[in-house]
Amino acid sequence: MNVRLKVLTAGALFFIGGQFALAQKDSATSKEIDEVIIVGYTAVKKEDYTGSVSKVSTENISKKNVSNVAQALTGEAAGVRVMTSSGQPGSEPDIRIRGFGSVSGNREPLYVLDGLPYNGNVSALNPEDIESMTVLKDAAATAIYGSRGSNGVVMIQSKKGKAGKDLITIETKIGFNSPLIPRYDVITSPEQYIGLSWEALYNQGKLSGSADPVAYANARLFSSAGIRPQYNMWNATAGELIDPATHQVRPGVTRKYDPENWKDYGFQTSMRSETNLSISGGEGKTTYYTGLGYLKDEGYVINSNYERYSGRLNLTHQAKPWLKGEFNLGYAYSNTNRNGQSADSGSIFWFVDNIPSIYPLFLRNAQGQLVNDPVFGGYQYDYGTGRGFGALTNSIADATYDLDNRKKHEINGNFFLKADLMKGLSIETRFGGQYYNNSRNDYSNPYYGSAASMLGSLYKVRTELFSWNFLQLARYMNRFGDHGVQAFAAHETTDWKYNYLSASKYGLIIPDGSEFNNAINQSPAYSYIYNYTLESYFGQVMYDYNNKYLFSGSVRRDGSSKFLFNKWDTFYSVGLGWVVNREDFMKNISFFNRLKLKANYGTVGNQSLVSKYAGDQNMGYYPGYNVYNPGNFMGLPAAAFDRIGYPDLTWEKSKVFDVGAEFTLFKNRIIEGSVDYFHKTTDNLIFDKRLAPSTGNAIKKVNDGLMVNQGIEFAFTAHIINKENFYLDLSVNGEHLRNKLTRMPIDYDTGLEKVLDISEAGFGRAAGHSLYDYYMREWAGVNPDTGAAQWTVHYVDGNNNGKFDSGEQITSLHEYMAQNPNANVQVGTTEVYAQATQKFIGKSAIPDLRGAFTLNAGYKAFSVSAQFLYGIGGYSYDDAYANLMHNSVVGNNNWHQDITDRWQNPGDITNVPRLTSNLAGDNNFNSMSTRFLTKSDYLALNNVRVAYNLPGQYARSIGFNGLTLSVSGDNLWLKTKRTGFNPTTSETGGRSNDGAGTMYRYSPLSTITFGVKATF
C-alpha cells in the first residue's frame, strides 16, 4: 500500500489499513511526507524502515492483463522471479524470492492479504481489487513471520474507500489469446520425414550386415518394423517411393491424401473478455469499497478456459472516538476447463510437436478417403491403431469429446477492531480466514479413447480447505522530542484443514451422462484429511533518533503441530539504518538528494517440509508418525507398512544478513536507486538418507546439511526527461545470485558427510557445489568415420595398454575421486553410453544475472510503457529438443529440423549422429548428456501498453470524471538460443517445477487487449 500523507498538526497520528503511521510537522505549514508502507504487522514511513522491500502499485498491476494477480509481479521487483509454468488461464505461477529457500521442501513465499496470512488460491483475487503488492525479502522484514518467512513474504493490500471522495469506476476489456511465442522447428513435410525414415532403415541394414541395404529398407519402411502399411499416404510402394541415390521421395510421386496439420486443429486464437465495476467513497465516520468483476479467459488450446465471477466489500467505520472497525470480504466463483494438458499421451502439446507429419488427424480408409463418424457426426478421428506414435490415443479428439472441469467457490474475509486506550496505546484484534470448495469432474466418453473398453468413465474429486487466523495485538506509538518509538506485542493462532475425496465409476448407461448414478461399476474411493495448527507469540520495536538513526528489532516464538517432538523455535531480527542526507554535513552536497544506509541480521524458518509438487504430501503434515496403508486381507481389515516416521524432524532454519543503500541523485531526483547485498545460510536442511536394506526401509528424512544463498540485487530508475507535457523514464532491476551447499548430510554407511546426492536427474549435490550444478555424462561428438555417438569416459588403465578397455570405466567421477584421491585417472571416449562417466561438467542452471528493464513515456494525454525481461548466463537441459533428436524406431516420433545435419558419409564433421532406427547400441543417442545443455540467455518482451487519457474538461463535458482508452500486449516476444526453447518457465529452465517434461508444457499464452476505463 502506497499512501502519501499531509501533516496538519504536530504529532498527528494516522490510521492506515488497520495500522498506524506517525508523522510530525516541522513547521506551521503543512508539508508532504514520505510514503507509508505496510510491512508485517505495522506501517512505517519507507524512509524510516531498515528492511528490504519492493512495492508494486495498482498502476503497474493494471498495465498487465493477467488472470492471476501474482503474475503481475513479473519483472517488477529485483530478486523476485515469477515462473508461469502453464499458459492455462487461471493457473498459479511459481514465485521465488532471493534464491532457493530449501533443498527439497517448499520454496513458495508466504502470502498475506490485508494483514492475515492467505492460504487460498491467488487466482481468486481480482487484480482490479488490489491496491498494491509489497514483497518482503530480508530478515528485518520477514522474521516477524517466523517459521513461514524463510521464502519471503508477498503482502497484498486490497482497495479501500476514501471519505469525501465518492467514485464509480467501470472498466471493460476485450482481447485475443494466441501462441505467439514460436514452438520448436520440427519436420513438417511428410516427404522429408519418410525420406529420413528410409535412410535410417538403410543404415540399419548396412550396419546389420545386410547384403542389400536398399532392399532391406524397402521391405521394412511400411511394415511392423517401421511404419505400418495403412499409413503409407503415397500412391507408391516403398521401392517406388524412395530414390536410393538421394534417399528422398522420387519426383512425380503423388499422395492419396494430405494429412492435417495437428497444430491447426489443436490451437486457436481465442477471446479474453473482462468487466469490472467498483463503487467507493465515504462520508463522516464510514468509508466503503465494493467491487464486482467478471472474467472469461479462453486458452489457445481447444477447450481450455477460465471463467471467474468475483466480488469484494471493504467497510471501515469509526464507531466511537476511541473505537474503529473494519470488515473485509471477498468471494470468487471460477469454472475452469483444462482439456488436453495432461503430462502423457493426452497432451495436445506433445502431439503437436512430436507426432510425425505422415500421420493424419482423421481416420482414412484404404483409398485415403475420410471416414464418417457414426457417433458424433463429421469425420472420425484417427486413434492410431498400429501407429508408432501415441498408439490408441488422439489428444485432440480427447480434448473435443472428453472433459476435465473444475469448479471452485472461494471466500476470504477478516474483521478488525482497534481500541485507543490512551495516547499512543491501543489494542487491536483481527480475525479472518479462507474457505474454498473445489469440484473436479472428469468425463471420458464410451466410444473412443482410453475409456472405450470400459464403456466410458467418470472421475470426481472434491477438495475443501478451511483456515482461520486469530490475532491479538497491543501497540504503543509515541514521539518524545527527537526520539520516536513504535512497539507491539502480539499473539496469533492459525488453524488449517484440508479435506480430500475422490471416486470413479465406469460403464455409462447414458453415453453423455456425467453423474455417478449413470455408471454401473465402482472403482475404489479415497478420502483423507491434512491439518495443522500454529501458535505464535511475537513482538517488535522500532526506534529512530531525529529521523536519522534507525533501529528495529523483532522476536517470534512459533509452535507447530507438524513436528512430533521439536515443535517450538524462536526467530528474531535486528536492523540498523542511517538517513545520511539528514546530516548537517550533507546540506551542501547536491549530488545526493537522498541517501540511506541500512543493515540487518536475523533468523527465519520453514515449516513446509515438502514441495507442493511432492507425491507424498502426508510427509509434510505428519512427518513424525509411521504410515500404513489400509488393505483387504481375505475380507478383513489389514494394514500395509508404507514408511517409518521421522520424530526428530524439525524446522529448516535460515540466518540472513542484508546490507544496502537507497538513494536519489541530484536536486531534481534524476536517478533513484537501491542496491542490496544478501547472505542467507540455511541449516537443518531436509535430506533423504539411504538406509541399509536390512532395516527394511530405503530412506529416512533428516535435518542435516548447510546451504548458502548470496547475491546482489539492484533497482534503478532514471527520469531522463521530465517536462510539463513530456516525460521519459527508464527503470532497470536485476539480481546476481550464487548458491552453494557447504555441508552435506552424514552418510549412515561411512559416518562421514555424504559425498554426492543425485536424487534429481542431471544435477549433483555435493559440498562446494550449488543445488543446480549439472552432473551427467559428457558428450564427445560424433565419430566422423562411422557416425556413431561418442561420450567422455574417465578410466584407470588397469592393464597399462594406454587405451580404454571395457570394465575400466569410472561410473561416477566425483565419488570415485573422493575415495581414491591419488588415482591416476585417464580420459578417453566411448561409443557405449553406459560406459560414459557421470561427472560435474562445470556448468550450472543458475544464471549470472536476471531481471527486467522498463520504459515509460508520456506526451500530453498519451502514455506508453514497455517491459522487457532478461537473463544472462546459466544453462538449461532442453529435454523437449532431446526428444526431437531421437534415433528410435521410425514412425515413433517427429524430428527437429536439426536432424538434417546428421552424419551421412565417412568424413562428415557434424554433431548429429547417424540415423539407424533404434539399432542396438545406437538407442542412447539422445539420452541425458551435455549434448542437450543449452545456454539459457533470454530476452523477452513481457508487456507493452499504449493509453490515452481524455483531458479532464472533455471527460466532464460527456459526464465522466475520467476516461482512458488503452491497448496492451502481454508475453509478445522471446529470444533464446533455440526457437521453441523457453527457459523462463521453471527454476532450472528445463523440466517444469513439478517434474513434468517440457514436451508436455502449456507454453504461456500471448494476449492483445483493448480496454476502456471510465470514472464517475
For the secondary structure, the number of strands is: 49
Strand content: over 45%
Mean pLDDT: 92
Largest sheet: 22 strands, antiparallel, barrel
Broad shape? globular
Helical content stands at under 10%
Terminal Cα span? 24 Å
Structural class: mainly beta
What does this structure look like?
The protein contains twelve helices and 49 strands. The protein is globular and about 100 Å long. Helix 3 (190-207) crosses helix 4 (213-221). The model is unreliable at 1-33 (pLDDT under 50). It has a 22-stranded antiparallel beta barrel. It is mainly beta and 1016 residues long.
Spell out the key features of this protein:
mainly beta, five-stranded mixed β-sheet, disordered N terminus, 22-stranded antiparallel beta barrel, 1016 residues, 12 helices
What is shown here, in short?
This protein is mainly beta and 1016 residues long. Helices cover 8% and strands 45% of the residues. The strands form 12 sheets. The protein has a 22-stranded antiparallel beta barrel. It has a 5-stranded mixed β-sheet with strand order 7-12-13-10-11.
